[in-house]
Design brief:
The complex is a heterodimer of chains A (118) and B (158). By secondary structure, chain A is mainly α. Chain A contains four helices and no strands. Chain A is elongated, with a radius of gyration of 19 Å. The radius of gyration of chain B is 22 Å and the shape is elongated. Chain B folds into two domains: 43 residues, no CATH class; 108 residues, Alpha-Beta Plaits, CATH 3.30.70. A three-stranded antiparallel beta sheet of chain B has the order 1-3-2, covered by helices on one side. In chain B, a hairpin with a 5-residue loop joins strand 2 and strand 3. The chains are: A mainly alpha (118), B mainly alpha (158). At the A-B interface, helix 1, helix 2 and helix 3 of A face helix 3, strand 1, helix 4 and strand 2 of B.
Chain lengths: 118, 158
């Protein structure tokens, strides 16, 4: 039983670390702010959540110490990180950061022009 | 909905007073019988039986977690692929949701979905502008968002 738990905890932590590495690679490889935010707001969220869940399981199942703050941290990160991604994207768009040149369509441009005229 | 829950808790307390007990187990038993009572008298309440809404909320959380996992696999594929052949773009999504919290929830869900990210919301709260990793099939993305998330959120707020 203890061995199975250890394996599960190991998988959780390793998966979280792997996802965080993928996020970092994505931040370097992807072409513009918007696509980078995709990588940062998704993979990093799940990566950190996995690491926290693994830590929680370790202390709860092997040390018998239930730490509810880790659960709260998981919930808070889950709620706030998509909002952070949205705000970064929006701030970039409103300060005229250009889309990547291979982008296919941009419905927001017309709306923005209209807002500028008012 | 809040009123029905409050009534149910109150009924559980009445059960405890009737039994002259302060055990948590008696609270649970009383809550169960109160639930049966609330269910029996459900046509006297203005909103529907509250357990249905609780089930809808749980369903929404399950969708949230599933989409988070799927979106991570999708992003992983794009990043690891040796050739960068994505077609990003911004498309508009008309929404039927009215209240602020519903729209916030929808945009959070969309941001956690594979390859989509909310950039802006129009001033009249009727259109979401979404940046997609792969905007070549925006129609498909719109219909899938409408069918799954919007429906699930409407199920909660109905």
């Amino acid at each position: 039983m203890i061995e199975i738990v250890k394996v599960i905890i190991g998988i959780c932590i390793a998966l979280g670390a792997l996802l965080t590495v993928v996020t970092a690679v994505g931040l370097i490889r992807l072409p513009d702010v918007y696509t980078r935010t995709h990588a940062a707001s998704k993979a990093a969220t799940l990566g950190v959540m996995f690491v926290l869940a693994g830590t929680f399981l370790y202390f709860y199942l092997l040390e018998g110490h239930m730490n509810s703050r880790l659960i709260l941290a998981i919930v808070f990160i889950f709620m706030t990180s998509p909002v952070a991604g949205h705000l970064i994207c929006r701030a970039a768009y409103n300060t005229n950061v250009k889309l990547w040149e291979n982008s296919v369509q941009d419905d927001l441009a017309a709306v923005k022009k209209e807002r500028a005229q008012q | 909905m809040a009123f029905q829950i409050l009534l149910n808790v109150f009924l559980a307390l009445v059960w405890m007073f009737l039994k002259v007990s302060n055990e948590p187990i008696d609270f649970l038993v009383g809550y169960f019988f109160g639930l049966l009572l609330v269910f029996t008298f459900r046509r006297f309440f203005p909103s529907r039986f509250y357990l249905l809404r609780v089930v809808a909320v749980i369903n929404l959380i399950a969708i949230f977690i599933k989409e988070l996992l799927l979106s991570n696999i999708a992003v992983l594929k794009v990043i690891i692929k040796p050739k960068l052949d994505i077609q990003p773009g911004i498309f508009a999504l008309p929404t039927e949701l009215k209240k602020d919290w519903e729209i916030t929830l929808l945009s959070n869900l969309i941001t956690l979905t594979p390859g989509t990210l909310v950039v802006d919301i129009s001033d009249d709260n009727q259109t979401l502008y979404i940046h997609a990793m792969d905007a070549s099939d925006a129609e498909a993305a719109i219909s899938s968002i409408k069918n799954t998330f919007e429906k699930a959120i409407m199920e909660v707020s109905r």
